[in-house]
Amino acid sequence: MSTAEGAAAAQRNVQPPPAQASLGAGVVVTDEAGRVLLGLHRSGVWELPGGKVEPGESVEEAVRELAEETTLVADAADVEVIGLVLDSITSARMTRMTAATAVRGFRGVPAVAEPDTIERWEWTDPGRLPEALFLPSAQVLRMWRPELPLPDGPFHRYTLGRLPA
C-alpha cells in the first residue's frame, strides 16, 4: 500500500454520515392466555412497548425499553428479532426502522412507568385489536402474526429467516 493509500484509508469513515434513519424496536409481549400487551398513548392511539435502540446497543438489548415503559423485565437472551419495518410516516426526510421483536418470557406485572405518555397498559386479544392502533405497532404485529387484519400503509417489511445448516 502506498503512503497516499494508507493516508486515505486512515481518514475513511472518521465522521458518521448525516442521519437519514432512526432505529427503534417494537416489542410484542404476550401473557399466558396469548393476549398482547398494548398501551394507550395520551394521543388516543394504542401502541406496543418499545423505543429507540441506543448507540452501541443491540436490538435485543433494547428490550430495556420494556422495563422503562411497563416495569416488566425481560432478558436480551429471551428476545427474538422477527423482522424489520421501514417507513417514513413521521418525516419525509427520516426513515424509521423498527425492529419487530417478541419476548419469550418476562417477569413482573405491567404498570405505567411513563404517565406523561401512556395512560394505561392492557392485555388484548389479538383477534380484537383496537382500530386506533399506532401504524408502526400494527406493522410489528403483522410481522408477528401475518394473518391479523391490520391496516396497511407505506411500509417495507422484511421477515428475518435463518439459513439452513
From TrEMBL:
Coiled-coil region list: none
Family annotation (Gene3D superfamilies)? Nucleoside Triphosphate Pyrophosphohydrolase
The cross-references to CDD domains, in alphabetical order and at most eight, read: NUDIX_MTH2_Nudt15
Indicate the segments forming the Nudix hydrolase domain, all copies. 18-147
**Residues spanning the membrane:** none
Query: What are the GO MF terms of this UniProt record?
Result: hydrolase activity
Which SUPFAM superfamilies is this protein grouped with? Nudix
User: Sorted alphabetically, which keywords does the UniProt record give?
Assistant: Hydrolase
Q: Which residues form the signal peptide?
A: none
Cross-referenced PANTHER family, in alphabetical order? GDP-MANNOSE MANNOSYL HYDROLASE, MUTT_NUDIX FAMILY PROTEIN
Q: What is the name attached to this protein's record? A: NUDIX hydrolase
